[in-house]
Fold these 4 entries.
Entry 1:
Amino acid sequence: MFYYIQGELTFLTLDYAVIDAGGVGYRLTISQRTSQKLRVGNTTRLFTYLSFPREGDMELFGFHTETELNTFKMLIGVSGVGPKAGISILSELEPDQLALAVINEDSKAISKANGIGAKTAARIILELKDKLAKGADKNRLISSGVTLPSAKSAGSGKMSEALDALMVLGYSRAEAGHALSGLDMEKTTLEECIRLALKKLM
């Protein structure tokens, strides 16, 4: 229904923001990490997701970036993970940090989120890694004409890990390869590589 809402940010807490767009105040539930990036009085754009938790009721969620929105959609696609749990996880972890937690099977990092237990964290890792495995079509990368840095320049599998992390976030292997090409994998950390690639993708 809404892709994004843009207007003056009139009210802000750690849990929600109110944007005045065309004289209408839209209340959006947000992650704490999104909240930390906003300032009252500024013109603000939040990407949105509309949820219907109960019949006759609805809740609008807001996200600072499309990557955060896409990560939220993937999280609520995991069995047993609802919108509130998705926001809780994104309050604890940035999308790139969540992707690294998934590929490293770090359930402790995910279960630090409020209301997320060890079993839910393990299920998130299992289901998102399964999606990653299904999406790892090497033929698509070869046919796309993307030239990636050699294994030597990537440094101890860093390129492979960065590719996997971006694919966990919903990007195709070809898109991830394009975004990572040209980065000096030896001189940047894995998280920095992923963040730089996300900037290109956005």
Note: The CA atoms of residues 121 and 158 lie 24 Å apart.
Entry 2:
Amino acid sequence: MARVIITIRVMPEDTDVDLDNLLERIRENVPEGTDVRANEIVPIAFGLKALRINLARDESLGGTDDIEEAIGNLEGVSQVEVEIVSRIS
């Protein structure tokens, strides 16, 4: 079964959001069968930073809507944007 790597950018509501804590809550709340892999904090503008996260899952689990919804519903999250979806074998 093929797997996909999904790169997402998570924008916090403001500069006061603890991104390390947010990352831990994301790890706890991603849908079953989705693994959080590499991540980094990316500066955006005016002190605002975002999380860029790589997630891995089986291709058979479908699109990214469930991931976006799970993360988007967390407190402190303003926006979730899928940047790249790549198929790996």
Note: Helices lie at 19-29, 65-72.
Entry 3:
Amino acid sequence: MAKYDPLYDFLDRQTASEIIMSFGEIERIINSHLPKYSNKREWWGNEISNSSRHVQKYAWMNAGFRAEPDLAKNIVVFRR
């Protein structure tokens, strides 16, 4: 299992078009700390390219969401 698969599983089960999660909630779901770089907007990128090194994006994008981080509040809004 990949590190972010539990996040995909969680998001894939959601029926709402918008899910707001704190970094702590995400860490509990993946049972691991987010990397220090997750405090950068680029880490939450929604790029379509398969050549991206940002493997975490597949957790939300494959579940049909885009990530919109609010770094000042340490939250992420996932929107369909």
Note: The beta strands are 18-22, 66-70, 75-79.
Entry 4:
Amino acid sequence: MILSAKKILELNKEHKLIEGLSERELKNPEGVGIDLRVGSIFEIEGEGFLGETERKTPDIKKIADIKDGKKEIVLKPGDFVLATTIESVNLPAEKIVIEEGKEPTHIIANVHPRSTLQRSGIYFRGTKTDPGYHGQLTFALANLGKSPFRMELGARFVNIVFEQVVGEIHRAYEGQWQGGRVSAGKKEKQI
């Protein structure tokens, strides 16, 4: 079951599901999700590796960060970048009560691109976020269009939707991306 934006904001008071929300999202979100803003952009450099027990992500180079005063980036056709959110999420590792009188449940988050991205030729790739994860979120953006695409840092670019999990989980997320890490930087064992 998908939680409404109003329910997310109610739960946010107790569980801090999303930290750093904009005034717009705190006071007047639309529909069932909450919009998140782009905070920093990274290019990937070098080779990656995914093995049975080890992995290495390519090195990254930060090309824009709202904290540094950078206001806009341009994605040329063929560009591929990683984008992180300004906001941080905190998905409780334990079950929480969504509605009074109902059994507690785990929740996960799924993120969807705002339609302006796809309408501009920008391919978005994200993943689900499991119970137990906390930190900023990182997504892939690729310009598959034929024209440059300009994007201001601080712009709302994705919409996060929270859903209830049916059944038990074996364990909450404890992985190496905890805290919003963008790259492994070296070969490491997978947890």
Note: Helices lie at 5-15, 23-27, 115-119.
